[in-house]
Amino acid sequence: MTAAEQRAEGAGPFTTRLTWRPPDGGTAVWESRPARRRGVIAFRPSGAPAGQDISVDDLTLGRLRRLNTIAATAFVIGGALFAVGAGVAQFGAGDATTCASIYFAGGLFFNTGGYVSLLQVVNAPRHEPGGEGRLNTRSWRWWSYEPTRVDWLSTLILFAGTLVFAVNLFDSFLKGLSVQQINRLIWTPDVVGCALFLLSGHLASVEICHRAWPCLHRRSLGWWIVAVNQLGSVLFMVSALAAYTRPATGSLINADIANWTTLTGACCFSLGGFLQLFERP
Question: Minimum mean pLDDT among 78-82, 131-135, 240-244: which range?
Answer without folding.
Answer: 131-135
